[in-house]
Amino acid sequence: MRHDGGAGMIGRLTGFLLGLSLAGAASADAFDESRAKLAAEDIHVTTGAAAGYVPDETCELCHEGIAASYAEVGMARAFHKPRRSRVIEDLEAIPFVHEATGHRYTMRWQDGTYLFSRWREAADGTELDRFDAPVDWVMGSGNHSRVYLIQEPSGKLLQLPLAWYSQSGTWAMPPGFEDANHAGLARPVQRNCMTCHNAYAEVPETADRAGYPNVFPTALPEGLGCQRCHGPGADHVRLALVDKAPIAETIAAIVDPADLPRDRARDVCYACHLQPGVTIQGQVRHGQGFYSFRPGDTLTDHFLNMDFQDGDREKADRFDINHHPYRLEQSACFIESEGELGCTTCHNPHRKIAVEDRAEYYRTKCLSCHETDTEGLPVMASAEPHPAVAADADCTTCHMPERRTEDVIEVTMTDHLVTRDPGPLEALVARLPKHAPQVVNVDLHDALPGMEQNTRMQYILSSILTYDGARQTGAATTLANLIRSEKTTAYEPWLLALKSLVKQKRYRDAAAIADEVLARAPDVPDVIANVGLVRYAAGRKAEGKRMLADLARTHPEMTTPLMNLASILRQEQQLGDARTILNQVLAQEPTNWRAWAMLGLIERTVGNEGAAIEAYFASLRIEPRAKGNRAALADLLDRVGRAGEARLYRE
Predict the structure, then answer these.
(1) What angle do CA 66, 54, 222 make, to 5 degrees?
(2) What are the UniProt keywords, alphabetically (predicted)?
(3) pLDDT tens digits, one per residue of 435-477
(4) Does a structural domain hold residue 390?
(5) Residues 6+ apart with CB under 8 A from 580
(6) Is 384 contained in some domain?
(7) Which residues pair with 378 in a beta bridge?
(8) How many alpha carbons fall within 13 Å on the CB side of residue 601?
(9) Which of 109, 399, 496, 566 has its Cα between 20 and 30 A from that of 412?
(10) Residue 331 belongs to what domain range?
């Protein structure tokens, strides 16, 4: 963010600023100096994977006007703690009933808490399996939608199965939860999601790398602030507030995207808004983390977007909620301008355009490039007169119309594919069924001609394995063979190949690469967890259990290896030890329904029927669709003489 009075100096400083920004983040020593000096001013400077950031409200001290304007922009409101003053949802339009499952949902404000509830009803109307939880975080500005998160003691964030859609003013299921077989309460919010839905969190230095726990601190930023686009602000703030440095030096210590080369400025936007498809996730470059990118960097040095061919439709027909640059780059306006047309040609990231001003604002933007006739209408290539434009309309009404997105079917978005004739506008916003793309080809979105083909294939295979939950045996085999033949030094593809083989229960194949993975990343927790399983499966049971037990001590927040250890102990009839591990899991992750179910099984085995019943009840409150657990609970209820309750769980 610029100093309000420094605009005239920016041009003279472009070379200095560019050199600084392209060099990457300031040195650790510089941040240490800023950290020490700003601590005396009670201004915190982050450490770890996202070092050098200050609280965004610090920017308001000098940039009050811009900060006030930006606070109205959706990005600033993208993530926050629940507050009564920020509730925009219709709390009377509930319960919402999900037809595919019959589950009922409510949200209500109660005693200072935003409370989520879900339950199902028996045939006689009896309420069953009620789950209540206070919402910890709200994700989404509410311009189009909002979803709701709870945070486990481990730090894991989980998405709740309910969303608010502002355009229709209705409750419905979030994307991916539409069908009966959805994730329920078990969808973790991944770091790649949080990277763009919020400012960078303060986490340890390697925590944003592959193989580290997907957990977050309880104190998180609230919304995307100034530094998401301007870079870490510690040195800039120190120079301005403490050192009282010359204005030129102070300005040069912060990135202004407006002064970056066109492609680098575009990368600031593209880091979050270029997503060719939510189906196939992009890949963090080997050696980088989710928080590595800084404004001024080349995006592809940190992150590789992936594109794919949909067997059901052409590329030009695909339209997702985050397709703004993807569609814009297919437009003649973008192509013929040789990329001069970009995000900030029309969008001021610091300002939300008032509804009553939008028609004139966007018309002016378009007409800054397009010639007009004597009537003030655009000159058409056909030499025919342009149709009259309604006073409350603008060029985008017809040429960049609202269109229903295929991945989030409850919302419509502006289609940034600039077109002459989009067809009937009503058809573009009509309701659509959820479309699951038929992925027939995957490749990098960017050409990157300097990248070796084998390296390229590693990223493509990684995307495929991520896309299908590591089920494709061919992709796992090819990736393992490729990295072995290439002797790839980066640990990330080795870890993914190992995890995929373990998930496919191909333990012999996994054992063939386990030592090499461990040698490359001996301290990465996910490597240890998977090598431990491979060791156990290969007959080195004591060693495998020891590796998992060590993780239980050093990384108790990693519940998956703990669950694997508990399962091993139960199979070995070490039920007391298994119970201890399960209680560790539940202390970190109370919503782990599988842990409750295994605990119920153990208690049933040792004859603790009351404890088993309570464990199964807890499991079913979290995951009421688990038929095996319902049957087990019904049997136990019958056994203790609670036949009426048992009958409800057999329906």
Answers:
(1) 70
(2) Electron transport, Heme, Iron, Metal-binding, Signal, Transport
(3) 889 998 999 999 999 999 999 999 999 999 998 888 899 999 9
(4) yes
(5) none
(6) yes
(7) 372
(8) 18
(9) 109
(10) 313-429
